[in-house]
Amino acid sequence: MKILNQAVKNILPPQKIKPSDWVEKNLKFCDGELQGSPMRLYEFQKEPLNAIIEPGVRKVVLMSSAQLLKTTIVTGASLFFLQTDPSNMVIAGTTANTVKKYKNGKYDPTIQLTPSLAKLITSKSDKTKTNDATTQETTVGTFNYFVSLNSPSTLRGLTAKRVFCDEISGVETDGDEGNPIALVSQRCESFRDSLIMMCATPLVPDDPICQEFAMSDQRYFHVPCPKCGDEQRLIWENVKFKWKVIDGGRRSIPDADTAYLECPHCKHQYSEAERVRAVSQGRWIATHPEIKDVRGYHISRLYSPVSSIRKLVQDFAEAFKNFDHMRFVNNALGEPYIDKENVEHDLALLEQLRDFDIDINNIPNDCVGVGYAIDQQLDRLECTLVGISEKNYYVLDHRSFFAVDCNKYDSPAYTELQSFINNTKLKTKNGTPLRVLQVWVDSSNGAATNTIYRFCNKKGNEIYKPIKGDGRTTIPLYKESTSGGYKFMLLNVNEGKNRIRKLLNAAMNEEEHEGKKIHFSYSLPDDAFLQYTSEKRVMKGGQLVWVKRSGSKDDRNEMLDTLNYCLISFEYMLNKLGTDAYKKLRKYNTNVAKAKYSEETQISESPSEHVPVRKQRKRRMGSGRNWFNE
User: For the chain, what is the largest distance between any 2 Cα atoms, rounded to a whole number of angstroms?
Assistant: First the structure.
């Protein structure tokens, strides 16, 4: 009889249990302060986990703030299936490194802390089984595949009943190998009861997790007000606080000591105990209940039982102080950051920024210096001239120098360019001569790099400097570097374009703008503003970078590039001049004007007989001692 009872236990199907109950009964925390303790779920974590066994649900989307919902649910769901319904599973992350960190830091340690799971994984020492960084075979013959979404080729050929994708916001969906999220989703199309779970902290409105959430039933967690009982979402707009002055009265930031959460209906101020109690009594409510097969869940740190409203406002104050609003919106609120710099302006309104009082022959009197920037193309050199003062940038001129092949050093375009720069006498409206601070020439075109190096290092071109744009967002705005024995300037073009867009937006909105304002000459080419707005800022590889709006290589953006180079060159020059840079430039311009006036006066007032006039000795503009280095 005892043998029969034991056999019946093995024959009967496993007892039905909710995934949330299974997790709390079997799993333990693998890291942090609670390492080794039984896993306990918050109320808002239970339904998303239980949704994985709901009939008709084929996809679960989790969009939340950092460290609140995602990893616990993904780990719990995958391990629940590993024990109760084994099948092939794909566990995917943004990069191979993030997948490795998750596997070694969360997935495998949790299994090792759970004896019933540990015996299901084959030993790495068993040569007849597969157990490595990318493939994990179980004792029942199924496989867990760990893949990178940014390497779509690793997804092909895999078949799995269940797919778990972590942090998909950093995935590039328009790569040459196709959309990796679509590719990984296709791994389970042959199963009628398949499941796909996707999760991420959102970054920008059009990133993958936002698109997936928009196609779900969009569930939000609602809690009862402790006073009026109204069911409501906890949102940032209902967090109230006062502002405090810092930096000697120059700035204000939120005062976390005055922060509280307010009910939008009865205006009751939640205490922290009331907020935590309300969260434990909350429930998920679907915005689009007509969608049955895709569950979507969104939650923010406003619901976190281990945080507080005061701590949340402290984080906001820090982000506000450091101009890092995006980090707060993403990581604390779990919302996509709406990039104000990406706004598209009406071209007709942009054209109204042309100023008919300024051009290359009418430079405003407050201008203290000018700079040229050149973009090299196969059939032309694009040249922009910009002036600078303490409060303004003046885009004075843009012109092109054409030739058959500008990749060659002996192209006549370089001779024409140099003649134009050397022979154009620049002065303000009141006659003050202006010094050309720098001439920066783009050497990014590999076919012409050596040509640009030779041109900039030619005798007489001491203020010419080769430059190269760099798409990385973490490097300094400019950095001197060396290649092939030639010195050049490496530029953070993304940061430069961020600054241009802020200047352009401020000019369009006529708003008070900290720093300089930008002005555009009426003489600029007809397509100037089309080029200045030819790019948009998008998320790639977890970084905000600028790309062409249409994606077409035929769209022109040389004027945007040359303006960018000019403005960065001014930052370089001002930093090199040190303190009182503008004062030094004005003094230099004044001395040049006085010297010119003195020479002209001596010539006009001299008697009929020849009286030799001592000419001013011209100073060499090289890298030695000159006005710039003194």
Answer: 138
Is residue 121 over pLDDT 50? yes
Alpha-carbon distance of 464 to 467, in angstroms, equals 10
For residue 490, what are its two tokens? 């490496």
Burial class (CB in 10 A: 0-12, 13-18, 19+), 100: middle
Q: Please state the φ and ψ torsions of residue 286, each to the nearest 5 degrees.
A: -80, 135
Both tokens assigned to 372? 């040229």
- Which tokens hold the place of 542? 């977890």
Residues 6+ apart with CB under 8 A from 382: 374, 375, 376, 398, 400, 558, 559, 561, 562
Tokens read off for 396: 């004075």
| pLDDT computed for residue 79 by the predictor | 96
Residue 241: name the closest of 260, 265, 216, 222 by CA. Answer: 260
Residue labelled with tokens 């303000």? 428
- Cβ atoms of 333 and 68 closer than 8 Å: no
Phi, psi of 437 (to 5 degrees): -75, -50
Report the relative pairing of strands 59-64 and 283-286 from DSSP bridges: unpaired
CB-based burial of residue 82 (10 Å sphere; 0-12 exposed, 13-18 middle, 19+ buried)?
A: buried
Q: Name 420's Cβ contacts closer than 8 Å, sequence gap at least 6.
A: 383, 399, 401
Altogether, the residues listed in the chain come to a count of: 630
Distances (CA, A) of 500 to 47, 125, 341, 543, 559: 46, 58, 9, 18, 12
User: Tell me: the pLDDT tens digits for 265-305?
Assistant: 999 999 999 999 999 999 999 999 999 999 999 999 999 99
pLDDT digits (tens, 9 = 90+) for 410-425: 999 999 999 999 999 9
For residue 341, the tally of other CB atoms under 10 A from its CB is 16
- The answer to whether 390 touches 371, Cβ cutoff 8 Å, is no
User: Distances in Å between the alpha carbon of 626 and those of 238, 369, 418, 576, 623?
Assistant: 60, 16, 21, 13, 8
pLDDT of 366-395, one tens digit each? 999 999 999 999 999 999 999 999 999 999
* Contact status, residue 173 vs residue 181, Cβ threshold 8 Å: yes
Q: What is the reported pTM?
A: 0.72
Determine contact, residues 192/169, Cβ cutoff 8 Å.
Answer: no
Residue 314 CA from chain centroid, whole number: 23
Sign of the CA dihedral with 491 first, then 493, 495, and 497 last: positive
Asked if 25 and 259 count as a contact pair (C-beta separation under 8 A), the reply is no
> Which amino acid would we find at residue 39?
M
Q: pLDDT tens-digit profile of 177-193? A: 678 888 888 888 889 89
Spatial CA neighbour of 66 closest among 326, 342, 338, 340 = 326
Question: Half-sphere exposure (CA, 13 Å, Cβ side) for 366?
Answer: 10
| Chain mean position to CA 245 | 30
Phi, psi angles (nearest 5°) of residue 427: -150, 155
Contact yes or no for 136/146 (Cβ under 8 A): yes
Phi, psi of 266 (to 5 degrees): -100, 0
Among 564, 574, 556, 576, which residue's Cα sits nearest to residue 442? 564
- What gap in Å lies between CA 383 and CA 195, rounded to an integer? 57
Helix, strand, coil abundance in the chain, percent, nearest 5: 35, 25, 40
